[in-house]
Amino acid sequence: MIRWTRSAQIASGKFPQAVQFAKEIADYSNKKYKTQTSVYMDSVGEFGRIRWFCDFTDFATWEKIGGQLMADQEYLKKVNQAADLFVHGSVFDTVMRAI
C-alpha cells in the first residue's frame, strides 16, 4: 500500500476559499480518476494547514494517476487558479509505503 499526502498552508484571509478548493479538487480527482482522496485540516499545531491523503495499491498506480493528473488541463487550470489561496513555498508532498 502506498499513501500519498500533500499539505499546504492557507494564505492569510483565504480560509473559506482554500477549504472550498481543497474539497473541490479532491472531489474532482475522486470522480474523474476513481481515487479516494480525503481532505483534513490540522486541529493542533500550525493553524490553517490543509492535508490531502490518497492510498494506492502500489507505486505503479500512484505514478499512473499522478501522470494523468499532470496531463489533465482542467485539473491544472483549477490548481493554477487556486495558487493565491496558499502560502508560496508551503506545499509539501510525501509518499509513504506500508510496512
How would you state the average pLDDT, rounded?
A: 96
Q: What is the CATH topology?
A: Alpha-Beta Plaits
CATH architecture: 2-Layer Sandwich
CATH class: Alpha Beta
Strand order of the largest sheet: 2-3-1-4
Classify the secondary structure makeup into a structural class: alpha+beta
- Radius of gyration over C-alpha positions, nearest whole angstrom: 13 Å
Low-confidence stretches: none
Number of strands: 4
First CA to last CA: what distance? 8 Å
Number of domains: 1
- What is the N-to-C succession of helices and strands? EHEEHHE
The amount of beta strand, in percent, is 25-35%
Number of H- or I-type helical stretches = 3
Biggest sheet descriptor? 4 strands, antiparallel
Short description:
With 99 residues, this protein is of the alpha+beta class. It has helices spanning 15-33, 59-71, 73-81; strands at 2-9, 38-41, 49-56, 92-97.
Give a verbal description of the structure:
The structure is a single chain. The chain is an alpha+beta fold and 99 residues long. The chain has helices spanning 15-33, 59-71, 73-81; strands spanning 2-9, 38-41, 49-56, 92-97. A 4-stranded antiparallel sheet has the order 2-3-1-4. Strand 2 and strand 3 form a beta hairpin. The mean pLDDT is 96.
